[in-house]
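Try this one yourself first.
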């Protein structure tokens, strides 16, 4: 029973997501994002643009209608070529009016997404996932806490935006009631101003709600990314490798390095010993090397093996305890000896050469 409880708690997702888990989720398109933040930024930016660009759009509208009624309406001898001319002129005028609004909306949408999760290109969300069309999971999503939160957000949006719209109309009730007695130009001006004010106010209200939604989305995102202790162990094992396999690989590498080192002992000129604990095999070629090189070194069992191979190949062994210990600590296999050992090693090599009658 205790074991089952431990397994249950080990599988419970209580740990924060690791950087690798976050990176993998980002590659799949699973990022911290509130759609309401983007919508609020787009709405606010568009209405602010309309508020300040109203004069430009008004002039373009007047230019369009003036041209239509002065050039196209009294047009005689109407044919296919003139129809295409009118069509192209209409497209140009409409483009001048609508394209700036669309461009502002696109830029605002991109800025809203960049603000939330930065630059990201991934095709993972476009891939076919049969789990998304699972009816059982679909019902779970409908009756989930997220669905309730979305419903509450919709109610808040309708309530807040409706309330602010009514307040603005009540504050400007005199202007609204006076529209019946105004000219078309004054009526359009008043309606445009009220629409802009209501739009900007609604955008600020939506921005406030989107900030609350962003914090909820952050909480839900972190919750979904949580990992169990077992998940963290499995991830570490996948990244770093299975400890048993790694141990075997390192053991194999040590064995290969040991074999290569032992193969170099027969080519050594001298083996300096402790004599029982340390053994350092040195090689020196006056024509190719500027200093002697350590071709093998070892302690205890490895030292005994080096000495055994040296004995089999008639390599001279010289006992020098301080030098053997110092070179074992300071010089790696394949490395040249430091200058501080030059004098002592030179004396040993001279002694070896005299024995071998090489000088």
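Now uncover the answer:
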């Amino acid at each position: 029973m205790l074991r089952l409880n431990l397994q249950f708690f080990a599988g419970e997702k209580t740990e924060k997501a690791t950087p690798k888990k976050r990176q993998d989720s980002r590659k799949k398109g699973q990022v911290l994002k509130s759609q309401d933040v983007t919508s609020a930024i787009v709405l606010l930016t568009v209405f602010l643009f309309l508020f300040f660009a109203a004069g430009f759009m008004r002039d373009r509208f007047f230019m369009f209608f003036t041209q239509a009624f002065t050039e196209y309406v009294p047009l005689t001898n109407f044919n296919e070529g003139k129809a295409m001319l009118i069509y192209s002129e209409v497209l140009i005028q409409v483009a001048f009016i609508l394209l700036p609004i669309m461009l502002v909306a696109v830029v605002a949408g991109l800025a809203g997404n960049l603000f939330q999760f930065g630059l990201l290109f991934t095709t993972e969300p476009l891939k076919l996932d049969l789990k998304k069309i699972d009816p059982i999971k679909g019902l779970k999503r409908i009756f989930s806490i997220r669905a309730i939160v979305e419903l509450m957000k919709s109610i808040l949006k309708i309530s807040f935006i409706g309330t602010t719209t009514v307040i603005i109309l009540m504050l400007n009730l005199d202007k609204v009631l006076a529209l019946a007695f105004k000219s078309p130009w004054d009526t359009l001006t008043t309606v445009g101003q009220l629409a802009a004010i209501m739009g900007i106010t609604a955008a600020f209200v939506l921005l406030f709600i989107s900030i609350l939604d962003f914090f909820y989305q952050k909480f839900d995102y972190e919750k979904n990314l949580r990992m169990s202790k077992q998940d963290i162990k499995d991830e570490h094992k996948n990244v770093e490798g299975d400890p048993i396999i790694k141990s075997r690989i390192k053991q194999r590498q040590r064995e290969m390095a040991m074999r290569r080192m032992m193969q170099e002992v027969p080519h050594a000129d001298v083996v300096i010993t402790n004599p029982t604990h340390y053994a350092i095999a040195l090689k020196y070629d006056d024509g190719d090397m500027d200093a002697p090189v350590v071709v093998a070194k070892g302690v205890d069992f490895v030292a005994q093996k080096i000495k055994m191979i040296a004995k089999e190949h008639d390599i001279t062994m010289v006992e020098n305890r301080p030098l053997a210990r110092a070179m074992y600590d300071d010089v790696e296999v394949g490395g040249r000896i430091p200058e501080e050992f030059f004098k002592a090693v030179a004396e040993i090599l001279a002694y070896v050469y005299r024995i071998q009658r090489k000088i």
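Discussion: The first strand starts at residue 270 and ends at 273. Residues 1-10 have pLDDT under 50 and may be disordered.
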